Each structure stands twice: as structure tokens, then as C-alpha cells.
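Quick one:
INPUT:
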């Protein structure tokens, strides 16, 4: 089976405080989460995994959550319910987060709650980091596209990209084929174990 030599990917850096025991909220109106982030681990594409988040209101006003959104525009493969709810002071609500991958590879996102207390939107909006790994081989390229600059005829220009195995199984590329004969690569084939990467040089003549 042949795997594509490059796919687009989104890197998203999430900072979250680790919480143990009861969630701790700070400020007059604030929400806290337990856990503060969810790592679903390895899930076969087409299957699903469910995790529960406890949302705690440590403030003095009832907080209204009118809806939720994801930091990445496309929230798939993550889903959350309920979509809207109220949290009274010193009370909790449980959210169910479903991870249902359709492809192999790591997916990273963040769940952001659109929350209001005392007619004021909570700022910054509360968020929970989400990550999961679709089981199977997956390949990413960084950068995902290459640019070549105009040169004199016959003078080659070289650009490089890093191919990285981001799935849970070995990636085996049997050959690198270019639709335009002016492009060539310095690799004939490639095998990458999970987590490994390799530099690919592409030459334009």
C-alpha cells in the first residue's frame, strides 16, 4: 500500500494546569475542569471513545454556557454534549466528549465554552485541551508545501521538507513519484517507525 508523501496538518499548542481532586476556580466568576485536558490515546478509525469532564463553578454567580466551539475550525473528530447548560455557584455539570477518528494519525484540538455570568462573557473563555490518536500508519510533512525560485535554465533549485510518522504503525513508502519531470527527490523509498522522521530533498531543474 502506498501512502501520500505529504499532507496538510495543524499544530496547536495548548497550555493547561494539572488538577487533582476537586477542580479549583479562580476569580469572582470562573469555571474549572477536571481533568484539565483529555488524551484519548489510540482508537481505531471508525470506532469511538468517550470521556467525561467535570465542570465546576467556583464563583458567586450562576454561569450560563450558551454553546461550545473548537479552537480548530473543524472540530471533527471530537464531539461534546450537552451543548448548553447552567452551572450554579459551587456546583458541577458533567460533559461527555466523544472521540471518533476517521483517519490514522494524531488529532489535537481544544474545546472552548461560550460562558456568561452576570451578563458578562467570561474572559478568557474556559477551554479544555483534547488529543487522540487514530490507530494505523500516518504521515505528515513540515512544511506541507515547497516553494522554488526562478533560476537560469538548467540550474537546479533545492527545497527540503521533513517527513514524520505520526501514527501508531510503520509507514512504508514504496516510491516517490512526481507528476512533473522537472522535479526529482533524493529518496527512492522510505520506511518510518512511529515517531521517526526523515528529511526529503526535492530538486527542481
Amino acid at each position: 500500500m502506498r501512502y501520500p508523501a505529504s499532507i496538510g496538518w495543524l499544530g496547536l499548542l495548548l497550555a493547561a494546569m494539572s488538577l487533582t481532586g476537586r477542580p479549583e476556580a479562580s476569580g469572582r466568576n470562573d469555571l474549572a475542569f477536571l481533568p484539565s485536558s483529555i488524551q484519548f490515546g489510540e482508537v481505531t478509525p471508525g470506532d469511538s471513545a468517550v470521556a467525561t469532564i467535570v465542570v465546576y463553578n467556583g464563583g458567586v454567580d450562576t454561569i450560563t454556557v450558551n454553546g461550545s466551539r473548537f479552537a480548530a475550525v473543524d472540530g471533527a473528530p471530537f464531539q461534546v454534549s450537552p451543548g448548553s447548560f447552567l452551572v450554579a455557584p459551587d456546583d458541577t455539570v458533567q460533559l461527555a466528549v466523544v472521540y471518533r477518528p476517521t483517519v490514522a494519525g494524531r488529532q489535537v484540538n481544544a474545546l472552548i465554552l461560550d460562558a456568561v455570568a452576570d451578563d458578562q462573557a467570561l474572559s478568557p473563555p474556559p477551554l479544555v485541551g483534547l488529543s487522540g490518536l487514530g490507530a494505523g500508519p500516518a504521515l505528515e510533512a513540515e512544511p506541507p508545501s515547497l516553494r522554488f525560485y526562478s533560476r537560469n535554465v538548467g540550474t537546479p533549485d533545492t527545497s527540503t521538507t521533513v517527513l514524520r510518522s505520526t501514527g501508531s504503525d510503520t509507514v512504508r513508502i514504496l516510491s516517490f513519484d512526481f507528476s512533473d519531470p522537472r522535479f526529482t527527490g533524493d529518496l527512492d523509498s522510505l520506511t518510518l517507525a512511529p515517531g521517526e522522521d526523515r528529511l526529503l530533498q526535492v530538486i527542481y531543474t
